[in-house]
Amino acid sequence: MSLDDKLARLLKLNHQDAVERDRLIIALDFGTTFSGIAYAFSTDPERVYSITAWPGADDRKVPKAPTVIKYEGSTTTFKWGYELDQTLEEKIEGIKLLLDPDQPRPLYTSTNTHAEIAKLSKPVLEVATDYIRAIYQHALREIENAYLADYIKDYDKQYVLSVPAVWSDKAKDMTQRAAKNAGISPIELIKEPEAAALYTLNFMKNKGLKVGDAIVICDAGGGTVDLISYEITCLDPLTLEELVPGSGGLAGSLMLNKRFEHWIQETVGDAEYIELKKTDGYRAAMQQFDLSIKPAFRSKQDPDRYISFPMAKLKDDDSKGIVKNSIILKGTTLFNIFDPIFHDINKYLTEQVNKVQIKRLIAHHPNGGAVRAIFLVGGFGSSVYLRDAIAASHPDIQVIQPNDAWSAIVKGAVLSKLPREAMVVSNAAEKHYGTCCHSLYDSLRDKGEERIWDDWEENEKCAIMQWFIYKKDEKLVRNKKIPLPFYRKFAGENPSKDDLKIKSELYESAALLAPGHPKNVRVSHILNTDLSKVPKSYFIKKARKSDGATYCELHFKLLIEIRSGPMKFSLEVGDEEYSAVNVDY
Q1: Minimal CA–CA distance to 570: which of 516, 533, 543?
Q2: Is residue 48 helix, strand or coil?
Q3: What is the rounded (10 degree) CA torsion for 133, 138, 139, 143?
Q4: Mean pLDDT, rounded, for 360-385
Q5: Residue 483 is inside which H or E element, if any?
């Protein structure tokens, strides 16, 4: 950045300071296997810091802590993270996956987390809250210890929480509630691969990227793989448009650990395995696999390795490779452990790449259907085996493992709130979204559909769908409010406050074409709206023709704002917004 640019930025920041207080942006990446926190000051947007010192980690400086927790005799006292690194105790892991129980689970996954939480008689949401509160309070102490107290007080705190792109709005809401219950509020959400893209691409924008390039981000973490694709529309500031809806599923390094444990169990036998899990040697073997064997694996041609279980008293068995409390781990065995997870990741990745290529070809993009690069981020994204396997599967696309890929998500989440550093300006619609309303029966449009009698207007109607997001992949501009018209009828001239507390159902459909009637649709959101503050002048008085019975009608709009996290809703009557709308999932 030139001196003139730096002076211009400082002048801009000084102008902003005159309007609003400076901000300390704190981001949390609540992961399946590891979690991290990063922060930055709005007055120094070029520096993003990670918390690297953790309780129980001794002298290790790492940007993340294990997402594990163990309660000690009660539901209020617990250890977490690296405090459990040297213990053999059963601990709760994979908490994050339980916040989205609707996600399909691969056959090769297994976890004791359900059983451990069941013993506690404590809801998953509260367990997640305890962990998030612990990591946040520790990070806050680390930040406060690095600066003078008066300096920190001059900053307003702004919080960002990253969530998987493939999660439902219900799961995102659960995670957001856990963070709020932990004292992190108000908090905004950002999709994990989006955050990774902002960080990774922002620091590569002067290293060969061009306007018009299509980039696929593959965030392979501990439990999930998230994919998202962008077109670069501007380099300074970095500006991205989402090309196709994000995709992915449950496939990550945690599954590798589970498959490795299952292999040990098959090798030594069930009875030996039960005793083996009680030993220090078992813990040492799992650490050896997690920290050295797993990251170093390249291919089935890798040389044999030895997994040692000191003092385990295993019976020697040459046929199974068990010799002196060690087991031979062949390259072919490791390949069999890795291969199913790779196939799942590559399946999701191939589907994403194909959708991008088809969309750009149909749009006659100047670059054709070309995808410039696939960026691998996340903990499992740093695997050399994964990089080489994906490169072999996609020989026409460069596969890049950027530096600092493990902390790209949490740093990108911070970057998203810094002034004009990097931004995503549009989403691609994942589904059709709309409402169901009653319209006058049309014999052609509604043939075969149920007729509904309207007592007030004394005519026949039919339930039809009104879609505000009419087609999948539709370009949705960020922070633009989409009006969704409603009207309600109320008996009498002065409806009560209870009558004015209404629920509106928002529907979604994943069908190729948006259906005209409420078939193949499901309720995605229930919007709770209080109309009692709306001026009475907006209520239109009417009377039924047959008997003169009075009723009133109110026309209003629900405004839907597209964001990185869940959609935001508000109420508008007569071009004036009255309140936010509470959402149930």
Answers
A1: 533
A2: coil
A3: 140
A4: 92
A5: strand 481-491
Q: Is residue 6 part of a domain?
A: no
**What's the domain range around 271?**
253-338
Instruction: Collect all residues with Cβ–Cβ distance below 8 Å to 569 and sequence separation of at least 6.
Output: 525, 527, 558, 559, 560, 561, 580, 581, 583
Q: For residue 254, which phi and psi values (nearest 5 degrees)? A: -60, -35
- Among 155-164, 425-434, 455-464, 470-479, which stretch is predicted with the lowest mean pLDDT? 470-479
Both structure tokens of 212? 């018009």
The pLDDT value given to residue 226: 92
Q: Is the peptide bond before 66 cis (omega within 30 degrees of 0)?
A: no
Tell me which residue of 29, 156, 90 sits closest to 412, measured CA to CA: 29
Category of 88 on φ-ψ map: left (φ > 0), alpha (ψ -120 to 50) or beta:
alpha
- Examine the domain organization and report whether 159 and 46 are in the same domain: yes
Q: How many domains does the chain have?
A: 4
Residue 575's Cβ-side half-sphere holds a number of Cα atoms within 13 Å equal to 0
The 3-state DSSP composition of the chain as helix, strand, coil percent (nearest 5) reads 30, 30, 35
Same-domain pairing of 233 and 365: yes
Distance from C-alpha of 327 to C-alpha of 305, rounded to nearest angstrom: 8
What is the pLDDT, as a whole number, of residue 268?
A: 92
Structure tokens at 214: 């299509």
pLDDT digits (tens, 9 = 90+) for 132-166: 999 999 999 999 999 988 888 889 999 999 998 88
Give every CB contact of residue 336 below 8 A, 6+ residues apart in sequence.
Answer: none
Give the mean model confidence (pLDDT) for residues 199-206. 84
Q: Which residue has the tokens 């997870």?
A: 341
In terms of DSSP bridges, do strands 187-191 and 156-163 run parallel, antiparallel, or are they unpaired? parallel
Residue 75 identity: T
> Do 259 and 239 share a structural domain?
no
CA distances from 186 to 159, 174, 470, 563 (A): 7, 15, 32, 15
Closest by CA to 190, choosing from 351, 14, 29, is 29
Q: Are residues 329 and 344 in the same domain?
A: no
244, 351: one domain: yes
CA atoms within 13 Å, Cβ hemisphere of 36: 27
Instruction: Quote the CA–CA distance of 570 and 567 in Å, as a whole number.
Output: 10
Residue 584: count of CB within 10 angstroms of its CB? 11
